[in-house]
Amino acid sequence: xxxxxxxxxxxxxxxxxxxxxxxxxxxxxxxxxxxxxxxxxxxxxxxxxxxxxxxxxxxxxxxxxxxxxxxxxxxxxxxxxxxxxxxxx
Length: 89
Hints:
By secondary structure, this protein is an alpha/beta fold.
């Protein structure tokens, strides 16, 4: 919808930027899935879910889609590009 109306949008997951969104800043989904696997393993080994610690993301990713920026007529400053974890061209 944002692309249809030529609006820049920021997202919380990299998959949205891979699909054509402008930028994303959020936790790594692959890290979250690894944590889920570790939790499941601990539960299957007999630990009680209520005894497991709550964990928060520690790795965040900043992704920029230059193709979308160009389509929206946005020039991304080089300093912003330098801070990105990944630039999709």
